[in-house]
Write a sequence for this structure.
């Protein structure tokens, strides 16, 4: 059972559209799919034709009390053959606060425990997350091994996604397992040069982390949602159907089970490269670059030492020969390496330092 969380704290980037339509396409290909709607707005529930107000019970019953895990299957509703929904409702907005008051160990793995009770009945569980990284999203990340980050093809969206990747990297330590994170460009309007350039920047920044599939803007996706159906049940030829079918094929084939960014140690012909950052005020220094998918400190060994008042962060990377772009993330702020004169303009503004491994 592959559990995939669809996450981005930015609203309106296509999380719900991706959950409902990827589910529709995977199910049409014969996979058994469960959509878990973790957003109190209940848009995924609505997009799959279920009115949350008609329901007596929803995910709240499963997640609110520590013994609710076994009730997940009861609250699921069948949308079509092979495609079920664990519905949301506005009451889920109260869950965030309720969980916050409970002990850490039991509040973060409610969804994970509930999915364990399904005994592998599904091939895919797609979790539609709300537009914030609160207790519900944390539950989703705890339950998932894979993450899809829909990214609107716009300049400002790229900025926000770096922060999100950093947050996910920080959470990974608390989650206790690795997450394979993939970026899905959405809302793409290929007629504008701006969108084409932005897509090129996204591909350059995220390389293998980025799906080959791009979801184009397509008004039929909105229409399908308002009719409560995945787009492939409405049109065979719409761009939305073609794109989400392509995504389904890519997800099924891509072995997302493996972390998309392999630990750098694993790369063949790698050399050990050491870089150092010195500062007397910083508390937390990480390194992010195209070698680790811009996820701060992913696949990097770190040492911290003191030289008088100054602290020295040593970052040990294992990289095959090539040229790499990177920045330090100093207390959450992305900075050029002050000791490295070699730098290039970055796709999202500012400059990235350059590292050449021979
Ligand atoms: N590729 C697309 N083409 C056209 N419209 C789209 C596309 N993707 C999403 N939309 C529309 O954009 C709006 C926002 O999409 P969606 O609800 O999927 O985003 P979201 O990330 O789930 O938002 P939220 O953060 O509020 O949950 C919806 O009206 C949806 O129908
Ligand atoms: Mg949504």
């Amino acid at each position: 059972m592959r559990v995939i969380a669809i996450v981005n704290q930015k609203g309106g980037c296509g999380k719900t559209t991706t959950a409902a339509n990827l589910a529709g396409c995977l199910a049409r290909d014969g996979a058994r799919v469960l959509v878990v709607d973790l957003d109190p707005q209940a848009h995924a529930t609505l997009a799959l034709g279920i009115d949350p107000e008609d329901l007596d019970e929803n995910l709240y019953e499963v997640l609110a009390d520590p013994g609710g895990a076994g009730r997940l299957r009861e609250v699921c509703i069948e949308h079509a053959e092979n495609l079920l929904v664990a519905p949301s409702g506005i009451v889920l907005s109260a869950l965030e606060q309720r969980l916050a008051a409970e002990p850490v160990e039991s509040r973060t793995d409610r969804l994970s425990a509930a999915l364990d009770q399904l005994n592998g009945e599904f091939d895919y569980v797609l979790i539609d997350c709300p537009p914030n990284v609160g207790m519900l999203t944390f539950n989703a990340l705890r339950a998932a091994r894979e993450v899809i980050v829909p990214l609107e093809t716009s300049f400002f969206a790229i900025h926000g996604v770096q922060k999100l990747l950093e947050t996910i990297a920080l959470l990974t330590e608390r989650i206790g397992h690795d997450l394979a994170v993939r970026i899905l460009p959405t809302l793409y309007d290929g007629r504008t040069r701006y969108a084409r350039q932005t897509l090129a920047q996204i591909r350059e920044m995220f390389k293998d982390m980025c799906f080959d599939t791009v979801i184009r803007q397509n008004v039929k996706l909105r229409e399908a949602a308002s009719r409560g159906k995945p787009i492939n049940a409405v049109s065979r030829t719409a761009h939305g159907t073609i794109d989400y079918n392509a995504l389904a094929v890519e997800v099924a084939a891509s072995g997302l089970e493996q972390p998309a960014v392999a630990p750098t140690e694993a790369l063949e012909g790698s050399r050990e490269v050491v870089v150092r950052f010195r500062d007397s005020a910083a508390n937390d220094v990480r390194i992010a670059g195209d070698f680790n998918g811009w996820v701060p400190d992913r696949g990097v060994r770190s040492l911290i030492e003191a030289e008088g008042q100054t602290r020295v962060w040593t970052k040990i990377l294992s990289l095959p020969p090539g040229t790499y772009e990177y920045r330090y993330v100093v207390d959450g702020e992305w900075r050029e390496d002050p000791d490295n004169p070699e730098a290039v303009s970055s796709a999202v503004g500012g400059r990235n330092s350059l590292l050449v491994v021979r």
User: Anything to note?
Assistant: The chain has twelve helices and 15 strands. The pocket of adenosine-5'-triphosphate (ligand 1) is lined by residues 11-17, 39, 41, 43, 131, 186-187, 215, 217-219, 221-222, 225 (CB under 6 Å). The CA atoms of residues 150 and 184 lie 5 Å apart.
